[in-house]
């Protein structure tokens, strides 16, 4: 089989670059059709390479989805880590949570990444569920350790993030004028940033003694 130009270019890349190319293509493909509806061939076409090339790199479709899903969740951890490195950490201030939540909101405005996360959470295989559990533990531990917040503050911040995921997945921002109740929920979740569509994941509580 002749190698197409896309695959030729891919072979000139470094190994990390080739992996990133296929992960990005997999993110787009799995976002559109989910795990069950996406084949390794579909991902290969999205990446501009052959299906055997993808299989050689990742193995089975399950292995590929595992890598794509893990990459998406890693980006959440990286986003929070980067933000916590530069923000004034004070869990007693709502503005701190707003800044941290806004960073997450900007990340999940990438709809492909958002949908891959939701597909991953809904995929019930043991290995994919293990990725979800590990990521949730890492995010919770990062928030607790880096902010010194209470367990309740960490829980509410993460819960708001999951609500943000749901509202964006259902394309709530496109229908706020049609549904006052939805608009109210959106505004209460996104706060003052609602006008520019950035997520504000503030738990809206002041630091208190942990229980």
What does this structure look like?
With 211 residues, the chain is mainly α. It has two domains: 1-59, Orthogonal Bundle (Arc Repressor Mutant, subunit A), CATH 1.10.10; 67-211. Helices cover 70% and strands 0% of the residues. The protein contains ten helices and no strands. Helix 2 (15-33) packs across helix 7 (111-122) and helix 3 crosses helix 4. The protein is globular and about 55 Å long. It starts with a helix and ends in a 21-residue tail after the last helix. Residues 192-211 have low confidence and may be disordered.
Task: Using brief descriptors, characterize the structure shown.
single chain; 211 residues; mainly alpha; Arc Repressor Mutant, subunit A; 10 helices; 0% strand; disordered C terminus
Strand share of the residues?
A: under 5%
The 3D shape can be described as globular
Total of domains: 2
Give me the number of helical elements: 10
Mean pLDDT: 86
List the uncertain runs: 192-211
Rg (CA only): 19 Å
Output the helix-strand order.
HHHHHHHHHH
Distance between the termini: 64 Å
* Total beta strands: 0
Q: What is the share of helical residues?
A: over 70%
Main β-sheet description: none
Based on secondary structure, the structural category is mainly alpha
């Amino acid at each position: 089989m002749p190698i197409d130009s896309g695959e030729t270019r891919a072979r000139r890349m470094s190994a990390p670059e080739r992996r990133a190319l296929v992960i990005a293509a997999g993110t787009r493909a799995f976002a559109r059709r989910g795990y069950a509806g996406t084949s390794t061939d579909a991902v290969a076409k999205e990446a501009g390479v052959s299906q055997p090339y993808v299989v050689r790199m990742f193995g089975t479709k399950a292995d590929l989805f595992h890598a794509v899903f893990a990459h998406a969740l890693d980006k959440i951890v990286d986003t929070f880590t980067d933000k916590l490195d530069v923000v004034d950490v004070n869990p007693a201030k709502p503005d701190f949570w707003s800044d941290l939540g806004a960073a997450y909101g900007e990340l999940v405005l990438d709809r492909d990444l958002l949908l891959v996360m939701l597909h991953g959470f809904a995929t019930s295989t043991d290995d994919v569920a293990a990725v979800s559990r590990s990521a949730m533990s890492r995010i919770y531990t990062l928030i607790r350790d880096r902010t010194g917040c209470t367990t309740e503050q960490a829980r509410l911040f993460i819960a708001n993030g999951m609500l943000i995921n749901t509202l964006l997945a259902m394309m709530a921002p496109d229908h706020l004028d049609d549904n006052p109740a939805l608009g109210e929920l959106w505004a209460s979740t996104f706060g003052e940033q609602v006008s520019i569509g950035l997520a504000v994941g503030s738990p809206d509580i002041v630091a208190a003694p942990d229980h």
